[in-house]
Amino acid sequence: MSGSVKLDKLSKGPEPKWFVLKILNVVVMATFVGSIIYVSWYYRDVASQDADNKSPFTNMFLPIMIFWSLCLAYFFGFFGISFVDTESLTESPAEYGLDDIHRQIEKRQMAKTREPRHDTVICSDSAAEKEKAAKREAAVAPATSDFDALSNEEILDMLNSGEIKDYQLEKKLGDCERAVVVRRMLYNQLFRETTPSASPEHNPLDLVPYAGYDYGKVFGANCEIVVGYVPIPLGVVGPLVLNDEPIYIPMATTEGCLVASTNRGCKALTASGGVDAVVLKDAITRAPCVRLPSAMRAAALKLWVSQPDHYAELEAAFNSTTNFGRLAGIDATVAGRNVYLRFACMSGDAMGMNMVSKGCLKAIEVLEREFPDLVLIAISGNMCTDKKPAAINWILGRGKSIVVEAVVPESIVKSVLKSSVGDMIETNRQKNLIGSAMAGSVGGFNAHAANIVTAVYLATGQDPAQNVESSNCLTLMELAEDGKSLHVSVTMPSVEVGTVGGGTHLPAQAACLELMSVRGAAKGEGAQPGDNARKLAQIVGGAVLAGELSLIAALAANHLVQSHMQHNRKPAAAAV
Question: Roughly what angle, to the nearest 10 degrees, separates helices 449-460 and 507-515?
Fold first, then answer.
């Protein structure tokens, strides 16, 4: 707006009075030159006079100097355009460079009215972006096209022409499975161009199933640009008696022998009387990174947060964002002028990442009022630490910190595990303790905890990427108090699970949770928020203990390769 106003002023200014300026220049120049000639003409007479004599020149010296100064000021003022109104010179812009001003203003105006791109990011959810998208969609397809009356091939033509985008199919068609079918047709075309083995008769996507899946639960929650689903074999191990309750545990995996081995461990543990499990700590973490102008200000922030009354203020702000989440603590770590605030939050039956992130933002608003020079660099500063190996999770914990133990009699070790107590203890010491220490492992003092954690996570709708920290595990095997039996335990400080949210609502995953009686939020008499999630964490630990017990026994007896050859290799087909 201001640019257009300036442009109007510049283009409608009065025409300069060039004739008057020229006459004024001639008069001033002539007078100036005449005064110089006058001084030069009388200079000789002035020099020959006595100092006591007065001459016309000496009497006029001060006025002449003043006159020359005025002339010079006029000349510099004119050529420096200090007395000239730029708005009155627009009729000859080429002489004063104002044509560049015109061009710059026009460019700004064109940039403001430029048509926005139509390929906005799929996950952009701002209100303004939604409004723009709605206007574009209304203008693209005639009367939004009656898609029910169009064939899949006609919709495919619209995709190829750019009239609609493939990520819009679910909303446009109102039928999630049909959207998947049309999208598969589109990508079948694309794969023929990029995949050498693809052809009209065969496309790799043909082997990916799609029919019969409830995509309505997936859309807007779990996956985008869906073209089908990938089936994973599901096995069940158990029963494992955990805290006096028999439980069957689902495991989704493609690794042969894993389910069979874990099931053998469950058999040995249940025959021994079961396992005891307890949650030591329950708090998901998020560590925003904030920056202050100096290290001194960063230290002042750390000190401020540690004060009980200030912590209470942050706690109130954090807790106001959630019904079930409760702030459990804040650890502030200073690095130069940066501060990493590790918020720990009890998150009920949810795994809690969204919950704790929302609470952190509210708490940071409080800090911004107290420290106006604070700048939020990132809501996650990697001291959380999420989906990455980190010693902080191993030491301080994240999510559910659990320990599970059992005592296996020597007779069970021999009859079920086909090994001996002494051999298992030595194998565990050499492999899980010394070997892992020599490798510089962080949280990896176990045989294969990640195998079991991932299989249970895939079966129950957990975030499989959180296997990284959830598989932190210390496996210990020692002689029991009787001096004969095997005492075995797993300590897992950062098991991140939930029974609501994420993929837990999908039909198959929800069924697996129900199989263990931990589906959804904890309900019933005496139930506390988070009871189901804590129980699931203990189940994960129990399954890990079974898997560790069985694998160490196989290693101690040198049965590992033989077992894998038997369970993980199909015999060659007989020649016809």
Answer: 120
The answer to whether 255 is a known catalytic residue is yes
Regarding beta strands 444-445 and 486-495, do their DSSP bridges make them parallel or antiparallel, or are they unpaired? unpaired
Residue 90, pLDDT score: 41
**564 a catalytic residue:** yes
227-285 pLDDT tens trace: 999 999 999 999 999 999 999 999 999 999 999 999 999 999 999 999 999 999 999 99
Number of helices (H) and strands (E) in the chain: give both, helices first: 24, 11
The stretch 180-185 carries a mean pLDDT of 95
Active-site residue identified among 315, 463, 531, 548:
463
486 and 407 in contact (C-beta within 8 Å)? Answer: yes
Buried b / exposed e along 368-384 (16+ C-beta atoms within 10 A)? eeebeebebeebebebb
119 noted as active-site residue: no
Catalytic residue among 387, 505, 559, 567: 387
In this prediction, residues 59-66 reach a mean pLDDT of 70
Dihedral over Cα of 503, 506, 508, 512: its sign: positive
Identity of the residue numbered 533 = A
Confidence of residue 8 (pLDDT cuts 50, 70, 90): very low
Q: Are 518 and 367 in contact (CB under 8 A)?
A: no
The span from the CA of 103 to the CA of 562, in Å, is: 81
| pTM reported for the whole predicted model | 0.74
pLDDT at 9: 42
Token look-up 């298992």 returns: 424
Task: Say how far apart CA 61 and CA 67 lie, in whole Å.
Answer: 10
Known active-site residue 154: no
Within 8 A by CB and 6+ apart from 384, the residues are 285, 286, 287, 342, 398
Catalytic residue among 175, 255, 313, 368: 255
